[in-house]
Design goal:
Ten copies of one chain form a homodecamer. Chain A is an alpha+beta fold. Chain A has one domain: GTP cyclohydrolase I, C-terminal domain/NADPH-dependent 7-cyano-7-deazaguanine reductase, N-terminal domain (GTP Cyclohydrolase I, domain 2, 2-Layer Sandwich), CATH 3.30.1130. In chain A, 23% of the residues lie in helices and 41% in strands. In chain A, the strands form two sheets. In chain A, strands 2-3-5-6 form a four-stranded antiparallel sheet, covered by helices on one side. Chain A has a two-stranded antiparallel sheet with strand order 1-4. In chain A, strand 2 and strand 3 form a beta hairpin. The longest helix of chain A has 16 residues. The two termini of chain A are 27 Å apart. At the A-B interface, helix 2 and strand 6 of A face strand 2 and helix 1 of B.
């Protein structure tokens, strides 16, 4: 579902940061919506992620039930499978729930 | 008292940040309330901390007398015992008292 | 409970602002703690509010169940009764609950 | 759908501000999600809005297609019908679309 | 060029704010590009401005030479002609040139 | 003690703002130091306040015991006596004491 | 020295704000440099101020000795004489001297 | 096109940061303009980049179609070719498109 | 003069930060007051610093003449002598004097 | 021209930061003034820099023509010659010129 385009500078080790402040999914326990800002940083390999398809991929979570910790790991796995980067990391900053603000961070390869 | 759930990505080394700005306990000398923001960062092992139980754990300090330095070490010990993380750290940012602002930081394993 | 001292400039129309970021009471429905910053602005009459007693008055709500809208009106009534100001207003900025942030504002005399 | 509770200070003219940063609906032209922060300010009459039901009312727009200008007027109408305030106003701050940020503000009674 | 859609609440006096941080035109003296954030506030009449067409209208200035003071008045005239609002105002915040930052504000009807 | 110089534009109604963030005096009850930022705004008459003498005047409070509300009124009286302005106002923003932040504002002529 | 150009919208009552953060002159008592941000707001008449000439006018103060209060009134007089605006106001925010920050504001016509 | 001047301290290892917030090019897919802040940091060799020519180089992209990832690598290549620095890095912070903010970072020599 | 209490977690390597924004002493050359924010970070040994006594220690400098660089080293020496920490560092951020802002930082053991 | 005083703690490795936001010189090409904030950090040897003389040294550049990159290296050389620090670094943050903001950083000993 995440599409890619050719990286014209595949021999260069450079970094792309993507920030999506409009991520939303559903709490699997309460059915209430959760909101997050998703930040991805990756060093491209031979492919770049196509941003429009990435946006649609994020939107596909809109009615999906998912725990904070698991959805971030799932997105990272899908992202890495799609564009096979040299390195990638992801941060999900979720809105306050019950007075608690939660942020989940994961990286590929796993440190 | 702090409950846990299974980590679906136990083989991954990833990080969870939790911020609770509504911590309050009581000064053991004056009996007056103290307020703090508690920040916990941990790398999960086989378990994730369940946030609702963590909130109730924090609330249980509401009428407890405790020095700043000691309460932060106590919370870290309880947190580590509950979820056995690979690593964990805690910061407690206390409100101004007598013109002095105090922050206490501890880590597991102790550096 | 709120004590007063003499205003040495009773003939002057001047303003005193008081900000107390550490107000806490209890939600009457859930029993969970609520937190607020209380801001009072008043034009003194013959008396000034004594701040230490005001702090203890605020702390007396710590284990009291109260709706946001009602506790703010109650504090204003008590404040006016204690120091009989020319004018007074109060704002209570409560922490996020269920994704909603609530602020309640009242004034004496009621506009 | 928006529930109310009795205002214990109905004779007082005071103000309640409510801020909900997690509003989302769907663009009726593209089907893509829109996001907004909704701010309501009202002077209660005999009734106060019950916040939990207000949150569920906001969430009911999650999969509804609606233009920015119209959804804000619709929410104001529903809010006024539910709690019959002395005065009410609403602001909807929508996220950037096509490089343009839009904010819609309405008031009751219409000025 | 600026298109409109029907206002479903034409009898209501409400306000729409539009912010476009990516306006650019060309300095008529030096030929160098100028940049501005354009902010429009209007009270709709029977029509609402369609945002996509407004964006394209803004973009049409990309290679046009225009003084700061004049381009803002021109945009306001075109905007008013297109949607015939009850009221409208415009602010153009231009980037620093020669150490001077310039902002131009105009309103309809002219005060 | 506050010195003045001639105002070369006595027929003009213009405003001078002065901000002094380093005011300190002593609490008359505890003997502990208090700190404040003092802000004065005045419309000069025939005289302007000389800033160096004003600074020394502020410093003269360093070891003086004074309540917040009274010291601000005293400074305003001295300031008005020294330079006979058309109008003057003063704000004293005091540091947090016992979790409470106090600001005192007064004006000449008294509103 | 301040040059003007024709206002193409002389019948419109609109506002131009100019901010120049790099004003410097010399203290007439100590010979040390003073620094200020100058902000001018004016409603043009038949003429607009040409910005490059205004910048050179500001620079002409670089080695001139001038009190804060007087230089701001002088600039306003020169500005009004040059472009004969419907209204104009000026604010000069000077850097900290002896721990005191001074701002001077004047307007034409004098209120 | 990027011109250089002699570095008078070629034996010193020091750093120059350049920030250009007014970069604009065109999206090769939609033809719509893109905007970015470009930040360059370099350690000069025998030459310094002449800033006016660098500005004109940036402006030359105004009507050029280019993907975010590729234009940043292209600018870095041109910059390095022009001034042969000891080290250089570039960051391009692009405006929000489709709710996604993208930043691209590259360095010479490629890490 | 700086008192200590027992550290209940002496085997743990954890950190305490203390911030005191109300430090004041006197310039030994001019006799004018100086102001600073003092920040101390230390890793406790067997003792914790008692905050009330630390505040009184800070206040004891109120009428003492001291250069910025020397007073910070003196406070660090006294602090280390009192509580014998594993590590300690101190930062003193002094107010602007003559347009210059000075910060002094020292550490134990000296790096 | 930069004077020094004895460092009473010469055996300690500690750091002094100095920030001067009012630096100005002249562009050697256009003759127009340039403005910068100068930040110096140094680890003193046997001498401390006397701040008043440093201020006068900075002011001596007021009518000197100098390129950004060169003036920063020159100041560092003079500073090191005057006080012979263990280490020193300097940052000059210059105002926007032609839409470009430039910062120059150098260090002793050169890395």
């Amino acid at each position: 579902m995440i599409e890619v385009v050719d990286n014209q500078y595949p021999e260069k080790v450079y970094t792309v940061n993507i920030e999506f402040p409009e991520f939303t999914c559903v709490c699997p326990k309460t059915g209430l919506p959760d909101f997050a800002t998703i930040k991805i940083e990756y060093v491209p390999g031979k492919k770049l992620v196509e941003l429009k398809s990435l946006k649609l991929y994020f939107i596909s979570y809109r009615n999906v039930g998912a725990f904070h910790e698991h959805v971030i790991n799932k997105i990272l796995d899908d992202f890495v499978a799609a564009c096979q980067p040299r390195r990638a990391s992801i941060v999900g900053e979720f809105g306050v729930r019950g007075g608690i603000r939660t942020t989940v961070s994961a990286a590929y390869p796993s440190k």
